[in-house]
Amino acid sequence: MKLLLIRHGQTPGNVAGQLDTAFPGPGLTELGERQADALPEALAGESIDALFTSTLLRTQRTALPLAKATGLEPEILDGVHEIEAGTLEKKTDHESHLRYMSTVFSWSEGDFDVRMPGAFNGHDFFARFDASVDKVVAAGHSTAAIVSHGAAIRCWAGRRAADIDTGFAESHMLPNTGVVALEGDPESGWRVLHWDQVPVGGMALADRTAEDPTGEAL
Question: Is 82 a catalytic residue?
Fold first, then answer.
C-alpha cells in the first residue's frame, strides 16, 4: 500500500519555536490555514481512499480541506500524536530543542530505552505509532493519508523505512504540510517514495523566520 504521512500546518508554537506537544494543542496560524488549503490541489494525483489524523487539534484542522475535497471522513488515530516533551514542554531554548530531538533520533537508531525527560521512552512511542499504522494497513486501503507531526513522522520513518537511515531523517527537514510518502507494509517493509522539504504549496507557503525545532534538519 501507499502511505502518505503529512505534517500538520503551521501553529503558533512553531512560530515561537516552542516544544508544544500537549493535548489538545493549538490550532493553526493564518499561514497554517493556507498551507492546509493547498493540500487538495497538491495531492489531487493521489487516489486517497482513507484519511486519518492524530488526537491533536492542529492535525484535524489541517485535514479539513482535504476531507472536503475527497469526501472522506477523517478518522482519529490515538497513536500518531506528537512525541511528548515531558519536562521540556513549552521550552524555546536551543539546548532543550537539541535534547528533545537527540532523544527522538536515538530511538530511530534503535536505542529505545532512552527516556524523554519526564515522559516516555522509544518502546512506548513505537508501540503506539506501529499499532496505528497496523490498523490502517489491516483495513485494506490502497492509499491512506495520515496527518501527524514533525518529530513523530521523522522518528518513525527513519526507523521503519528500509531505504533510509537515521542520518537521512536528521538531515532532511520536514516543514509544515511536508509529506513523507512510503510504499510497502509492516511485514515486507517500507520504502520512501519521496520526502518533501518544502510545504506542499511551494516556497510561497514557507516561513523562513520561524524557529521550528521538530521540523528542522539537525
Answer: yes
